[in-house]
Specification:
alpha+beta; Thiol Ester Dehydrase, Chain A; six-stranded antiparallel beta sheet; 3 helices; elongated
């Protein structure tokens, strides 16, 4: 399943060159992830209540085309792997014309926040990221 998140590049996202700062791309991608997992029923309330949740273990990011002020974009997110303790999520930031501005591959785990260790992901988390179990 591909999750789509629409947003607009704002002045606060820009660096001194007038395009989106490299670190802001990470914030945009995180905003999109929280949006789809929250809509899928596993948002901050569930993470804090269960004391279990997703953690980013690794990110590979490629910047392809710059984003500029007031540009409308879409962030597409999808899970690449079958259910496991550690999985990959791919995210793309797309310009209005469909060009890929940014491509990111994340390695994510599911952590028990009290035991401070990775655990097998529960079915409600898997459903939230588009894996029906």
């Amino acid at each position: 399943m591909i999750f789509k998140y629409e947003m607009k590049v704002l002045e606060k996202h820009l660096d001194s060159f007038g395009h989106v700062n490299n670190s802001v791309y990470l914030e945009m991608l995180e905003e999109a992830r929280w949006d789809f997992i929250t809509k899928g029923g596993f948002g901050l309330k569930e993470v804090q209540g269960q004391k279990k949740g997703p953690v980013v273990l690794e990110i590979n990011i490629k910047y392809r085309k710059e984003l500029v002020n007031r540009e409308d974009i879409v962030i597409e997110s999808k899970t690449l792997d079958d259910p496991a303790k550690i999985m990959r999520i791919e995210q793309k930031i797309l310009k209005k014309n469909g060009d890929v501005s940014c491509l990111a591959t994340l390695v994510v785990g599911f952590m028990d926040l009290e035991k401070r260790k990775l655990i097998d992901p529960p079915s409600d988390w898997l459903n939230a990221i588009g894996i029906n179990v």
